[in-house]
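Troubleshooting entry. The earlier prediction with NAP gave an output that would not parse, so I re-checked the input for stray whitespace and re-submitted. Clean input:
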Amino acid sequence: MLPHVLVLGGTTEARALATALTGRPGIRVTTSLAGRVSRPGALAGDVRVGGFGGAEGLAAWLRERRVDALVDATHPFAGTITANAARAAAATGVPLVVLRRPGWRPGPGDRWHPVPSLEAAAALLPRLGDRVFLTTGRMGLAAFAPLARLHFVVRSVEPPEPPLPAHTHVLLARGPFTVAGETALLRDHRIDVLVTKDSGGAATSAKLGAARDLGLPVVVVRRPPLPDGVTPVGDVPSALGALDALAGP
Ligand SMILES: NC(=O)c1ccc[n+]([C@@H]2O[C@H](COP(=O)([O-])OP(=O)(O)OC[C@H]3O[C@@H](n4cnc5c(N)ncnc54)[C@H](OP(=O)(O)O)[C@@H]3O)[C@@H](O)[C@H]2O)c1
């Protein structure tokens, strides 16, 4: 039986890793998706969709499907599945590689306000402006719903989940975005302040450059911590290297 790698996906890196692994002879790759996105696009290798039923369900899946290595390549803010992956790996003895793209770093001219949660971002906003560009994804926007006085432009890939603030304009779009495009958007909507998660990566970082150029403040929601004892790798080549090291000579 070929060595079987399960990639917990939902990110650009997971997609690239599946492509790279399926290009290697003698490996079977399955990518797991939560099923949140209606049209996730084609993926190399096998694909399964939907939750496992907690850490225990994931552990059972690893055993039943004879998985030899587990790669958690989920989004930096998908904290539950990451915790479950660590628990399931520990319970089954299946080696775990955690692939996390690095977070963004502020540079000269940036006016960043780091906060620990969406609720903390919402609490800060009334002091920073009236017109908000909200790019934290389609979930969790209830935190901003009480801010009835502010005007929001919400951008997400899929329609945002209610409740939403009273004054909300929704833009459905998928990156990558350009600094020129983001600058035009911030100007056209007369945005005072940007809110983002520290997702990292190039596809959605242009808004940060645009905010810097326009001198706008940015509320940056910090990442949830990784489980104890987990040291992530930062990119696809490093994940491939970690898998090679597991396979041995
Ligand atoms: N959070 C974000 O901002 C964000 C952004 C872009 C993409 N994503 C992707 O969207 C997915 C869901 O994100 P989330 O923040 O809702 O995750 P989450 O809060 O960590 O996970 C919630 C539950 O969804 C299921 N799940 C999550 N990822 C899964 C996967 N790759 N395969 C199978 N089941 C999965 C698990 O259900 P069970 O307990 O039943 O196994 C998990 O307990 C993730 O795969 C992530 O990579 C998230």
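This one parsed fine. The longest helix spans residues 79-92.
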